[in-house]
Amino acid sequence: MSATARSRRTRNLVRIGALTAVAALAVGCTSNTPAAESDDDGGGTSAVSDNDETGDTVVIGFSGPAADHGWLAAINSAAQSEAEKYDDIDFRIAEGTNDPSMQISHVETFINDGVDAIVLLPTDGAALTEVATEAMQAGIQVVNVDREFSSEFAARTTVLGDNYGMGVSAGTYACQLVEENDLGDAVIAEIAGIDSLPLTQDRSQGFEDALAECGQDVDRRVAAEFTVESGEAAASNLLQAANEIDIIWNHDDDQGVGVKAAFDNADRDEFFFIGGAGSANAMRWIESGEMEATVLYPPTQAADGVRLARLLAQEKGLADLVQVEVPRRVVLNAPVVNADNVEQYMPLGFES
User: Fold this and answer.
1) Residue 315: left (phi > 0), alpha (psi -120 to 50), or beta?
2) What is the pTM of this model?
3) Could you give the CA distance from residue 192 to residue 283 in angstroms, rounded to a whole number?
4) Strands 329-331 and 247-250, bridge-based pairing
5) Is 135 within 8 Å of 111 (Cβ atoms)?
């Protein structure tokens, strides 16, 4: 079954998801300045924002894990690129590390340097909680990204992807495929990431819950380790255990490189292949008809964290809210990307 035919059947669902996601992506940080009259003849109003205008220079420290995974590399580069857009940000980026002790040392350096804000994607949220709390107590605005601290006092605001929502999006899309392709009691498989991680558990639970809404369930499930090699091994085992599959959801597009290799080696393509995270590889496969869809786990989280850190340090807020201050918690959307909307999401695709 061609990707074109598949996407035509699912166009309505994706169009709804795309509109929601585009609206979320289009919303920028706006100031507390009220709308002003437009100069055009229509006499209408247009939003006026001074948040992007150069203000007092603020020093923002950023620390994230080692970029040993395509999504993490995208997180780090997006944060730096966002900071470079502003003349009033003095951006100090620590070397990426997977050692919590080293990252604690980075944060202590930021505290000693008296930075205005810290954007922190911790290697281990619990391990970095104490030092992040110290930063807050020193009057430094801390923005927690992706992996949560174990105390509400450790950050002013938290920016998260929606792991449970990823599973819901993938499961809802699978249900749509079942209905529109008259698959009946479909054989649905899942290739998870590391099972011991809460994020994997959340993704699996969301997938299971969404499938239950249309009377489906996961018939085959294997777990990998977010690596190419483990993805290929897990997918090979899955294909050997099941002679026919209707839909496969793979949690992670980085491990999806190996998953796709296993599919090709086994010469199996009878199923709808859905990915997760939104890599450039996945999006190219969607364009070429080798993959049905992927579910976005935004690599913009740290970049969004940099923007919010700047607003906090400059004592600005969000005028799009009735409560104009920066929210305590921001959870980003997990839209489905397929052939109908892949072009608009391609700029967010990261290289695996």
Assistant:
1) left
2) 0.82
3) 20
4) unpaired
5) yes
Longest dimension (CA), the chain: 68
Report yes or no: 155 and 129 within 8 Å, Cβ to Cβ.
Answer: no
Residue 242: CB partners within 8 Å, gap ≥ 6? 187, 189, 219, 220
| Domains within the chain, CATH numbers bracketed | 3-25+162-297+336-348 (3.40.50.2300), 55-161+300-316 (3.40.50.2300)
CA distance 195 to 205: 12
pLDDT digits (tens, 9 = 90+) for 257-276: 999 999 999 999 999 999 99
For residue 68, the model assigns a pLDDT of 84
pLDDT by residue (tens digit) across 3-21? 433 443 443 344 334 333 3
Q: What share of the chain is helix, strand, coil (3-state, %, to 5)?
A: 45, 15, 40
CA–CA dist 237, 284 (Å, integer): 25
DSSP codes, 80-140? HHHHTT-TTEEEEEPPP-S-HHHHHHHHHHHHHHT-SEEEE--SSHHHHHHHHHHHHHTT-
Bridge partners of 93, per DSSP, are 62
Which residues in the chain show pLDDT less than 70?
A: 1-49, 319
Question: Please, which residues bridge with residue 264 across strands?
Answer: none
pLDDT at 49: 57
Burial (CB < 10 A; 0-12, 13-18, 19+), residue 321, is: exposed
- Identity (one letter) of the amino acid at 234? A
Q: What amino acid occupies position 138?
A: A
Starting from the edge strand earliest in sequence, which strands make up the sheet with 188-192, in order? 220-223, 188-192, 247-250, 272-277, 293-296, 336-338
Residue 351 to residues 283, 287, 291, 293, Cα–Cα distance (Å): 10, 16, 16, 17
